[in-house]
Every structure is written in structure tokens, then in C-alpha cells.
């Protein structure tokens, strides 16, 4: 099924509940798809009872914003005076979570930096990263989401690449591989990785989009239960 860009925009507008963003039908479809996936993280958090706020700025001068602005190229969360938006998710007494687009983390095995389309990490770990001016370690992050917007079946090479990333980052970090298309061979490659989660056909109106939100809710539950087992997510 062909995905219409306008459908992605309509859905992300709904998920962000009126918060303004810079994307239009003239924007690159793959960038819109990333923000669509970002909006699904927000939607999943809200449905799980989380409180969402949006910020821009550096460690000590972050300010709450209502207009969202996202990176056009990979960056780092410790860049000074940055204008890029990130979200915070609050679930009771559990530490805040932050959600970023197109930032880098450091792999567990190779210790090399690699880009994440969407990164979910503990607020304290993010603050430490900004204070020390270094990308967060994979072991300090909750989840990453790789977004692939394709017009054809996904090549197996994408599965191999993401499997290698999951292997390098370690089993504590959940890796979500999300695409509007299918890719049976790519999924077969990923299936051997215990921390790799794959959801194909994620697009507006498709039940698999709801499946992804359920998977994200599970990640939030695992975070919250470490600090407040009685808190319902």
C-alpha cells in the first residue's frame, strides 16, 4: 500500500495534539516519516499516562517550547546553544525520560559513535552527557528507533546493518526497526538478535502502527517498574 505524505502529516498532527512542527507536504518523505515515528512515541507515552513537555537549549538554559524544530543532519545532544527540540516524558516518581531525533550514542563494544533516528534515554544520563560534552553510552539508553521509509521491499542489507548495531550496543538497549514497507529477509536477519524488535507496515490507519505503540508502552513499563512498581503505565 502506498503511503500518502499528507496522511503522515495528519497523523503526526493528531499525535502531537496541536503542537506546531515545521513539516509540510513539500518536505522530504523520509524526514516526515521520522517525525511521524517520533509522534508515535509521544502518543504511546500519553496513552500510558505520561506527561509530555518539549524543550530546546543546552544543559543549563533549556526552555520549554511549543514550536518544534528538528535536526536535518546527525548531531549530538551536548552541542552548546542548540535550538533543536527534545521531549521529556514523566511517569510518576520514575526519572524523566528524554526523546531526541537524529543524535549519536556510543556503542558498547566498539566504543564508536553511531546515529540514532530516535533515541529514548534517562534524563540523568542525558544531563551527564551534556555536562561532560560527550555522547551517551548505549548502556545508559532505554531504546533506539531506526526509521526506514521505502517505496519497495526492504533489502536484506538493512537488516544486517541494524543487527550489527544492536549487537554492538548491547542487550540492555532495545532496538526498534520500523518501516512503512515489508522486508521478510531483513526481518529474518534481525530475528536472531534478542534486543532487536521489528515492525513493518507502520503507517497511518494500519493496525501495525498500534502494535508499535504497544511495544513502546512495554519499554516505558520496564523503565517505571525499576523505581515505582505500583505505578500503572
From TrEMBL:
Protein known as: Restriction endonuclease
Species whose genome carries this gene: Actinoplanes sichuanensis
Lineage: Bacteria, Bacillati, Actinomycetota, Actinomycetes, Micromonosporales
Amino acid at each position: 500500500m502506498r503511503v500518502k505524505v499528507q496522511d503522515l502529516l495528519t497523523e503526526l498532527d493528531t499525535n502531537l495534539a496541536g503542537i506546531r512542527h515545521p513539516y509540510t507536504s513539500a518536505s522530504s518523505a523520509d524526514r516526515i516519516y521520522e517525525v511521524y515515528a517520533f509522534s508515535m512515541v509521544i502518543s504511546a507515552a500519553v496513552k500510558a499516562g505520561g506527561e509530555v513537555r518539549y524543550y530546546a537549549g543546552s544543559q543549563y538554559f533549556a526552555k520549554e517550547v511549543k514550536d518544534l524544530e528538528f535536526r536535518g543532519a546527525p548531531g549530538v545532544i551536548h552541542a552548546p546553544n542548540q535550538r533543536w527540540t527534545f521531549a521529556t516524558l514523566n511517569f510518576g516518581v520514575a526519572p524523566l525520560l528524554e526523546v531526541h531525533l537524529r543524535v549519536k550514542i556510543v556503542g558498547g563494544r566498539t566504543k564508536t559513535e553511531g546515529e540514532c533516528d530516535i533515541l529514548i534515554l534517562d534524563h540523568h544520563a542525558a544531563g551527564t552527557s551534556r555536562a561532560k560534552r560527550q555522547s551517551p553510552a548505549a548502556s545508559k539508553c532505554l531504546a533506539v528507533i531506526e526509521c526506514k521509509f521505502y517505496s519497495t521491499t526492504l533489502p536484506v542489507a538493512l537488516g544486517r546493518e541494524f543487527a550489527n548495531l544492536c549487537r554492538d550496543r548491547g542487550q540492555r538497549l532495545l532496538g526498534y526497526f520500523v518501516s512503512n514497507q515489508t522486508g521478510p529477509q531483513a526481518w529474518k536477519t534481525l530475528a536472531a538478535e534478542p534486543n532487536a524488535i521489528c515492525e513493518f507496515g507502520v503507517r497511518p490507519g494500519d493496525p501495525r502502527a498500534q502494535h508499535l505503540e504497544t511495544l513502546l508502552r512495554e519499554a516505558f513499563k520496564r523503565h517505571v517498574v525499576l523505581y515505582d512498581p505500583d505505578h500503572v503505565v
